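Trying the structure run again after the queue cleared.
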Amino acid sequence: MTYRLFEGKDHASIYQRYRFTPPDELKNIILQYLDKKKGQPHVLAVDLGCGTGQNSRLLAPHFRQVVGIDVSECQLEEAKAVPGYPNITYRKGTAEELPFADGSVDLLTAASAAHWFDRSRFLAEASRVLKPQGCMALLGFSDTATRFHYQNCGERLSRIYEEVKQVLRPYTSSPVAVSDGKLEELYSAIPFPDKQRIEGIRAKSVILVRNVVGFVESWSMFQAYRKTDAQTAHDLLLNTQKRFLEEMGVTSPDTEIEWELEYFCVLATKPQ
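Done. Tokens:
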């Protein structure tokens, strides 16, 4: 099964530059949950659909070993190129066939990736590889709740962003639509009785205007749009940046802007 529609080097480079790391608040929720349900030591975390490694790197200081798994060689090469994480190993593979012994994994995570998985096969593998009281954390963000803040024009900037999404909506794949539903069907299918959903985790960060446009470029639906008409897709990015700068009354795409995302997390514990 292919989790991402586009696995080329250019798209992987865009992912590395413009995809963001989940916020510390969400990381802390996951680690506190693991401490409560399983306790120390934290030996092995497996980050599924790891892409270019943002979530893997977030976990690295808290585990003896982190293994990031993705189907894309190009994504993994970008992840491996980031120095300073000797306890992370990256492997090509899928969430449906995990290269781990039964009962060997403390934590399984997937950051904005679980919507690509084959639900029943993934859950069977999760049940197999997790230790007793091992935990699963599937996280993502609700793009419908994205907000921008800059002086008095934040609402107008958020409206521009929504208009771009409307242009690209016809190119949205079914798995991405599942993600927009906050993994409700996957949550219902988790066989562990001890599970919970946490929603409404809002996090603000400061980024450059050019990075907002780069984030749009990283979307799979934008990549699908680009395949149908490369010039029109390119013009959409340029026009979006231009509209942001005009609304803000600035000229530099390196101008900082605050954006606010709303995250969610599905947590579950394997029975003893």
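Strands lie at 44-48, 65-70, 88-92, 105-111, 130-149, 194-208, 256-269. Worth checking whether this holds up in the mutant runs.
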